[in-house]
Amino acid sequence: MTTTTFPTGTILGYPRIGRRRELKQALESYWRGASERAAFEEAAAGVRRATRERLAALGLGRDDSSIPESSAHYDQVLDTALAVGAVPARFADVLDADGRVDLDGEFTLARGDAERAPLEMTKWFDTNYHYLVPEIGPETAFHVADSRIAARVAEARAEGFTTRPVLVGPVTLLLLSKAEDGAPAEFSPLDRLADLVPVYVEVLRELREAGAEWVQLDESGLVSETLGVDADTVLEATRAAYAQLHSATDRPELFVATAYADLGDEAFRTLADSGVAAIGVDLVRGSAPSAEAVAAAGDVTIAAGVIDGHNIWRGDLAAAFATLEELRAQGATVAASTSTSLQHVPHDVADEPQLDARLASWLAFADQKVGQIVTLARGLTEGRDAIAAELDAATAAAEDRAGAPGVRDEKVRARTAALGEKDFSREDAEVREAAQQTALGLPVLPTTTIGSFPQTREIRVERQRFAKGEIDRETYDGFLREEIARVVALQEELGLDVIVHGEPERNDMVQYFAENFDGFDVTVNGWVQSYGSRCTRPSILWGDVSRPEAFTVPWSSYAQSLTSKPVKGMLTGPVTILAWSFVRDDQPLGETANQVALALRDEIEDLETAGIGIIQVDEPALRELLPLKQADQADYLDWSVASFRLATSGAAERTQIHTHLCYSEFGQIIDAIDGLDADVTSIEAARSRMEVVEDLEKHHYARGIGPGVYDIHSPRVPSTEEIEQLLETALEGIDSRLLWVNPDCGLKTRGYEETEASLRNLVEAAKTAREQLAQNA
Ligand SMILES: Nc1nc2c(c(=O)[nH]1)N[C@@H](CNc1ccc(C(=O)N[C@@H](CCC(=O)N[C@@H](CCC(=O)N[C@@H](CCC(=O)O)C(=O)O)C(=O)O)C(=O)O)cc1)CN2
Ligand code: MET
Ligand SMILES: [Zn+2]
User: Fold this and answer.
1) Where does the Cobalamin-independent methionine synthase MetE N-terminal domain start and stop, copy by copy (predicted)?
2) Measured between alpha carbons, how far is residue 626 from residues 342, 366, 747 in Å?
């Protein structure tokens, strides 16, 4: 086997949706049937080509494997699952006679079809990216089902690039998978490792044939303690898998990348001992391997993740370089790398000319981070003096940021400093329940939705016209009021009990808040993929946060003026606002969370004054930010739960506080959910068919609870019978006085046709369930 050296500087991955979301456009157009397959393939290839050219222009080498081949149409976990044939039996028909899967098969798994729900989607580590969860059973027939990753390597090769293909590694792939339906209770996907690794061996051979000299296997599963498998078992699996991959012939050199938390010496040594040639460690979230581990590791290259792939600050470049030098002084072969893939940050600060120049000078998006990597690599080759100017410039920017106006706002500081215990708690839950019963008079099994109604193209276009100055504020507001009136009337007609205004005024549930708070800025082109073709523009929280004036109140009161049923006010909670923004890194998150909480507390007070009796404070990201290391979890849950309570505990007894969580497994955090002290909580449950009910029962959960009965992630309309069935399951573990009937999440990504049909069935099913309860009483 040829031995090639690892590049001195590299990144673990690059945004793949395109600088102007070209891939999103192409995907949605293909799905709509508005373009042919060939046109889609061409657009996707265009994004890949532009990425390679850009990375080379920024200074990564064309032929030294420093450019990762990290593209994906929909999801990188799906791409790896397809490569090794991890296709569940319920989708067996997407495989052709040769066991291969094509483009439409890929999208069937990702998006489902009329009969089938798609693969489940869940959080990728502690990020706002969502991957598709492979389903693996005792019978899953692993085989090479798809060769697109090799084809992309060959495509790059033809254009003069030697790229480094990126796959999810075998251990992490299985750790992130779920057991296929019908698998025995004691079955764990990791049990199939020995059957899976030989298929990776074949895939590696294919990649080598296509011209890859290095392959990157992402094994962040090794750093997480939240995947339900103990550390020793994970290390044992790692040892077994990599010994076998190492001994394979005709393969690229192995680079195992880990990210999102500390790898730790033991896992580092396990990888080094099993013969992998390079190991990536996240030095933003974790620490460098110890001197002993480095000494014991032989000639393995350490790809030191010193540039933050998960946040947008320019950071302390001099400190990053010092870390590299220190590792080198210990005898390590070092490369400069990002801590994670850059898929979590936008492309380019230069695409944001509207940003204040001073703020912009503190930032580094993906392209700036590539520049930083190139600088550090040059420093490693030529010595510190060669990059002194760049290091000094970054230091000067950090100093400027520390003293800039708005970073500290003394009024905000005085308010958080004065907080006492009473600011974090409400009247007893029973007292509140009685007051709310009187105030609201809701039926048993009340029906409601989670907040958003379909964000139609028309709404987005009107908002864009308003942003461009093509229509004035009055016209835009008038349009939104019409939209709200329509949505309220629709809910009345459907017979829902608690009405929402539909959130048409919001571009995004976090960005909208950032736009209305001080201390934030927003981007115009700073798109980051959240899942599939869906993107967000995370806001930049750079200063102390406060709320200049009420902003949700006019919409909620307008909706309330149209109906005698209660309208639910709709806010995004402090933890979620932090989780889905780029947050200042110069103070503890808990401190920032309390500032956001106080801004929300002000809004809640104004909603109450305006006569809104139910207020939902969404915290879908509560589970997302849960630290991957158990030792850090208690502290996180303390400050996150406290910030929610700070936001909501100013509410009167009679005001019913709701919260909503989705996209996660909740078993692990039920105590924290209880600690939020919300009166009613809606959670995602339909896709896991009410699995959560068992957990709730185990914890003797005694508050209002709405486990979702309708999966809003696919256009499929759930039948009345199906929803009745789910309600029956729910009622086996939940007291009927506590149960609410609602979808899994907001309806913003859905169309009206399926939304109306589904909600009609939901209301109908609730009616039947109520009748049955009355009969049984
Ligand atoms: N921040 C955040 N994170 C989240 C969620 C969330 O809602 N927000 N939900 C969960 C799942 N993730 C999601 C992420 C994004 C979307 C989503 O729908 N995104 C939209 C964009 C939302 C947005 O910001 N829209 C803007 C800009 C819309 C736009 O693209 N306008 C066009 C013009 C209009 C058009 O032709 O469509 C343009 O600028 O070119 C607006 O409405 O104003 C999309 O990708 O399509 C849904 C779920 C978890 N994480
Ligand atoms: C991702 S959670 C979404 C909650 C929000 N209120 C909505 O309905 O869209
Ligand atoms: Zn949700």
Assistant:
1) 10-330
2) 21, 25, 26
Q: Are 569 and 555 contacting, i.e. CB atoms less than 8 angstroms apart?
A: no
The DSSP-derived string for 29-67 is HHHHTSS-HHHHHHHHHHHHHHHHHHHHHTT--SSSS-S
Contact by Cβ (8 Å): 92, 137: no
Are the beta carbons of 755 and 454 closer than 8 angstroms?
Answer: yes
Residues at CB less than 6 angstroms from ligand 1: 128, 455, 457, 460-461, 463-464, 507-510, 530-531, 534-537, 580, 620, 663, 748-749
Alpha-carbon span 112 to 169, nearest angstrom: 25
What the block records as the tokens of 331 is 């005898």
Q: Which two tokens stand for residue 613?
A: 């009796």
Closest atom of ligand 2 relative to the 616 alpha carbon: 6
Residue 349 is given by DSSP the state G
Mean pLDDT of 232-237: 98
- The closest of 663, 507, 504 to 123, measured between CA atoms, is 663
Query: Does residue 375 come out as left (phi exceeding 0), alpha (psi in the -120 to 50 range) or beta?
Result: alpha
Report the alpha-carbon angle 350-351-356, nearest 5: 70
Question: Could you report the per-residue pLDDT of 574-632, keeping only the tens digit for each?
Answer: 999 999 999 999 999 999 999 999 999 999 999 999 999 999 999 999 999 999 999 99
Assign domain 430-776 one CATH number from 3.40.50.2300, 3.40.50.360, 3.30.70.2470, 3.20.20.210.
3.20.20.210
Where residue 549 falls (left for φ over 0; alpha for ψ -120 to 50; beta otherwise) is: beta
Q: What does the alpha-carbon distance between residue 355 and residue 357 come to, in Å, rounded to a whole number? A: 6
Over residues 655-667, the pLDDT tens digits come to: 999 999 987 778 8
- Ligand that lies nearest to the alpha carbon of residue 450, given by its number in the listed order: 2
pLDDT digits (tens, 9 = 90+) for 182-224: 999 999 999 999 999 999 999 999 999 999 999 999 999 999 9
The reply, when asked if residue 745 is annotated as ligand binding, is yes
Structure tokens at 318: 């001099």
Asked whether this complex has an ipTM greater than 0.95, the answer is yes
196, 209 in Cβ contact below 8 A? no
Please name every residue paired with 216 in a beta bridge, in sequence order, or none if there are none.
166, 255
* Closest-approaching ligand to the CA atom of 458: 1
User: Which part of the chain has CATH 3.20.20.210?
Assistant: 22-402, 430-776
325-360 tens-digit pLDDT: 999 999 999 999 999 999 999 999 999 999 999 999
* Residue 255: strand pairing partners: 216, 278
Pocket-testing residue among 129, 534, 578, ligand 1, by greatest number of atoms within 8 A of Cβ: 534
Identity (one letter) of the amino acid at 591?
E
| Pairwise CA distance, residues 219 & 271, whole Å | 10
Ligand 2, atom 9, lies closest to the CA of 746
Q: Which of 130, 347, 501, 713 is catalytic?
A: 713
Phi/psi of residue 704, nearest 5 degrees = -60, 135
**406 annotated ligand-binding residue:** no
